[in-house]
């Protein structure tokens, strides 16, 4: 049911490839925009033009730093429940009730990956050895990475055969009520 280390690693490699092409596309667009604005700034040496260019550089830096964060947080908290790499391998990110995680939890999961990196990658390798195949950032964010098909199979089985809740809740064996014995005449 839980996605193993290798499946998660290959999903991450696919996500890095997707992000790489996204960075190239956005980098190309910003270079074109900078070329257009530099042409205008060459003829205008005013202080406001220089400040605008510096402000654009800061905005561009923040934008490029937030692409990975937004990629992971938005996709893992969306109806997809995972990034494109995870979807390609059929795994999703869920909470402890196997539901879709919130955007806040997805942001916390992404930020806690920094802790996994600071442990020299041991936080990621933990997914190979823990009981529920959880990495350090999954433990911090209380999330699970599961195989979507297996989860759907369990869900369909649960809907087909729901637990019967009409049975009385019996106390422990020592506390069973003592019923009177029938006397034989």
Helix content: 55-70%
Over all CA atoms, what is the radius of gyration? Answer: 27 Å
- What's the helix-strand series? HHHEHHHEH
Weakly predicted, low-confidence segments: none
Assembly category: single chain
Largest sheet: 2 strands, antiparallel
Number of strand elements:
2
Give the terminus-to-terminus CA distance.
Answer: 60 Å
Mean pLDDT: 84
Structural class category: mainly alpha
Strand arrangement, major sheet: 1-2
Strand content: under 5%
Q: Name the shape in a single word.
A: elongated
Number of helices: 7
Describe the structure concisely for a colleague.
With 185 residues, the protein is mainly alpha-helical. It contains 7 helices and 2 strands.
